[in-house]
Amino acid sequence: MLCFRVSSEKGEKMQKLSQIRKRDGTIVGFDQGKITEAIFKAARAVGGKDRKLAIQLSDKVFEKLLKIDKAVPAVEEIQDTVEKVLIEEGHASTAKAYILYRQQRAEIRKEKQLVLEKEEIDEVDKHFDVNALRVLKARYLRKDATGKLIETPKELFTRVATHAALPDLFYDKRVFDIHSMQPVNEPSDFKPAVNEDQYCIGHYKLNRYHLEAVKRMYDRFNINRQMRVSWNKLFDMIKNGEFNEYESNIDELYNLMTYKLFMPNTPAIANFGNPLGMGSACFVLDVPDSIEGIMETLKNTAVVFKAGGGMGYNFSKLRPEGDFVSSTGGIASGPLSFMRLFDTMTEVIKQGGIRRGANMGILNSNHPDIEKFITAKEGNKALRNFNISVLIMPDFWEHYENNTPYPLVNPKDGKVVRYANPRQLFDKIVYQAWESAEPGVIFFDRVNDTNPFYEHLGPIVTTNPFCKAG
Hints:
Blueprint: H1 2-16, E1 19-21, E2 27-29, H2 32-45, H3 51-67, H4 75-88, H5 92-116, H6 123-126, H7 130-140, H8 153-165, E3 200-201, E4 204-205, H9 208-221, H10 231-239, H11 247-258, H12 266-271, E5 282-284, H13 291-306, E6 310-314, E7 324-325, E8 330-331, H14 335-349, E9 358-364, H15 370-374, E10 386-392, H16 396-402, E11 406-409, E12 416-420, H17 422-436, E13 440-443, H18 444-449, H19 454-457
Parallel strand pairs: 5-6, 6-9, 9-10, 10-13
Antiparallel strand pairs: 1-2, 3-4, 7-8, 11-12
């Protein structure tokens, strides 16, 4: 009975002190455990190890807080009370450690406020140290034309989590059915509604870029006329709250990011819920043997770099340096000259993009310009925005083992231009890899052994910059 009475009295007191006011003005539930933990940390800093004593002191703080004539005390008042109890109870050294801790925390809060250009930090800001917030500000947080921040980390993770959950809507059986082939005729143009506040998933509001992403996904999912609803109907369903059950999906990703348990790549953080919308980081593009094709690849790469992605290419379709060009009567400048063009473009784009662009340049081992390619980054003085690798073709090893001349083939007509010593060629790769960490190597046979798309899409001949084998 005694235990019940004490518990009952404590419960009644807890009801009187159930909330506190944080520095940013928000009201949150009172948690005495945080007071206990703060006291124990301060005591431990000066050699204390008695958690029971920390609990007793925490109870005294709680009793004093009940005497404050406020229904909702501020966090500063609670901390002042902790200091007072520690001093009154004769724990001066613990009180000093606690005061120093408060000062350090105050300095960190002030620094975070300066970085984020805001008067008070929120619960998300607290999860990240100052350096992390500086990176968020420099790369990811939205800014106006003058460079002033117009987005907080909390708003950033909200827009990213909301965008990432949008594909879930298309796997709802009310929306998409892979077995349905009912044609749905829709106009191709789309303009987001003026009043974006009408579109929400639970309490998460969809901005205009979220809505544009939904329309893009609709068009892709409906390529074979498999959607069960028109896109107008889909937007009405969003407006009417028919997808609010997916709010928990957004909550889950939001919490993973804000508690630093998982973080998406740079393009997703920067672009989800923003104009570019690109979430992928890794791309490869073909480089055809024509000025038009090369420039188209250069343009598309610039667009990818602008949004924070990286690009890989195999330059082996380009005819070798000095080869005749029938359309102009001139001679070809070779793959390396065009790689320098891509390198220069990357240098320009990285000045205004989200981050520096990344290139993976690959050349087949049987290309006539292979020796020049192997030494292209000698001393790391050229192609500074490239990683390079040699694609070792299957026939190379036969010539290597037998020490027979290795044929170098013009990609324009498939004719053998000349022969190289395969062992000297491989020794040169090894030496340059030692000298400047470039080039790496990719083995054509090994990379295609488990290629599931070989028969339908052809062999893998290049990788993106982040999947280099070397």
